[in-house]
Amino acid sequence: MVAETTAPYRPDDVARTSGVLMGADLVAQIDARLALLGRPLADDDIEPFTRVLYDTNRALPAADVSRALRRAQEIGWRVGAAFAAYDVLLSPTLAWPTPRLGVLDTADPESVYRHASVYSASPASTT
Predict the structure, then answer these.
(1) Using CB atoms within 10 A as the burial measure, which of 18, 70, 106, 124 is most buried?
(2) How far is 59 from 114, CA to CA, in rounded Å?
């Protein structure tokens, strides 16, 4: 039997929470690599969009990361509980067909911001 259900979380909450955690990890990974190299970040070390993310998340307060970790755990428990009633989760990878090459140009951060929301996943169906 196939049954549609509502996700036990708000997609915008998951996006915000995972954005904080991925942003914090991005900063940690780049900083670790720079420490290994023994030098500061150069302008051509990372793509422009990655640099925007790095600069934005570098100023992220530790309390925000702590709250995001707790929220991710809460969301995980809710999703886990949902599997008490369902065996398989079917969800599209993208809400739309894959964008043409160059549409999401990481060398042009504005391009990514203009188009990224169109290619985010749609609400999931569960079986």
Answers:
(1) 124
(2) 24
Asked whether the beta carbons of 21 and 62 are under 8 A apart, the reply is no
Instruction: Using the structure block, give the residue that is written with the tokens 């996006």.
Output: 15
- pTM for this prediction: 0.75
d(CA 112, CA 51): 13
Q: Is 21 exposed, middle or buried (0-12, 13-18, 19+ CB in 10 A)?
A: middle
**CA 124 to CA 7: how far, in whole Å?**
7
What's the pLDDT tens digit per position in 15-58? 999 999 999 999 999 999 999 999 999 999 999 999 999 999 99
Q: Are the C-beta atoms of 79 and 8 separated by less than 8 Å? A: yes
